[in-house]
Amino acid sequence: MKHFPLHCFCLVVAFTVQGVLAQTSADQTNSTTNETTSAAIVAHVYAATPTGVELYDTASNGKLSLVAGSPFPGDFSDIVTNGAYFYGTDGTSIYEDTVSPSGALKRVEVFNPALHADEFESVGALDLDHAGSALYVNIHANGGMIYESYRISKANGSLVWLGDANNGEASRFGVGPLHITANDKFVFQTQNYFTWFLQGFAIGSNRELVAGIAGGTPPAAPSSNVYNPYALTADPSNHLAVAVYQQEDPPVGPTVGPTQLAVYTTDGSGGQTTASTYENMPDVALGWVSDMNMSPSGKLLAVAGNGATSPGLQVFHFNGANPITHYTGVLTTAPIDQVHWDNSSHLFAISKSAGKLFVFTVTPTSVSQAPGSPYSIDSPQRIAIRPL
Fold first, then answer.
1. How confident is the model at residue 167 (pLDDT cuts 50, 70, 90)?
2. Separation CA 161–CA 13 (nearest Å)
3. pTM strictly above 0.85
4. Is residue 28 within 8 Å of 373, Cβ to Cβ?
């Protein structure tokens, strides 16, 4: 289905920190290599670039220092790590590296996911379960998306083939990567066709994707309009945050109004329910949502936009099954492609077009940009976070 440009007519909430951040942020370069700091290291940040994977130490105040040995080999379109092993894909193969205590990477194996996909085209995305015991691979193949499941060997990180979701039947309308519920029992993906809203799979005892789950119904829209989803993230409980756009005369009518944020609750069988409507869903002050990520506490929702109109980064209060509520205005107007949290209230955001890595310290009551942010990085593709 063709996506029509979104037009956001929402009022950006004034937020005191925005002006402060604009005045105090300063571009940083790789001169931060091995910079000493008295602050404790709380996380490793991996940034995939065309020339390799850059590794940064994150201090407790959010300041980044480039680790010696960077960049590590690989031109990756997606990366993930479970702390012991690191996996990256160049769109064709999956590469496995071991992770040292310092975070340094060492290549140990290369896998060919095309062996398990008919009419293989490319690897779309990589996803880990929360236990770090399984890797799910989105494969563009056979005119749609196929989801491969691998168990991660505890002994050496090797990928053990488990099977395809739905016996390898391609999903024709899936959007983006899979998102896994906190209990590691279900995964969900948005659907961009108006007769479906979410696509889900159960996770079996061996960590494989085993069965399809019927998608939830869209939020209530005014008149005969329909809400379509296009971005999704899960909280640490049983809730999903979904970015939706409103469409007139589906499936070919124009989009109307701003992007809004819906909430879904999953039950013990993976079914989804919602009380979200056009009246209680908050508007997003971004023209197109490129990514969303939930804080480890489940209390904060980061929303990124990289569209031609109103790009940037915004944070919302997430309230479980209750409606999402506004928190910040737009923290930066740079196009943001991906956002991710660590376990120490740090929010990381990359802008490929601007060549920047932003770091914010965000709590439910305060927001500040970390010292040295934003950092200059050549075309960051993806980031992965290893909390310490």
1. low
2. 48
3. yes
4. yes
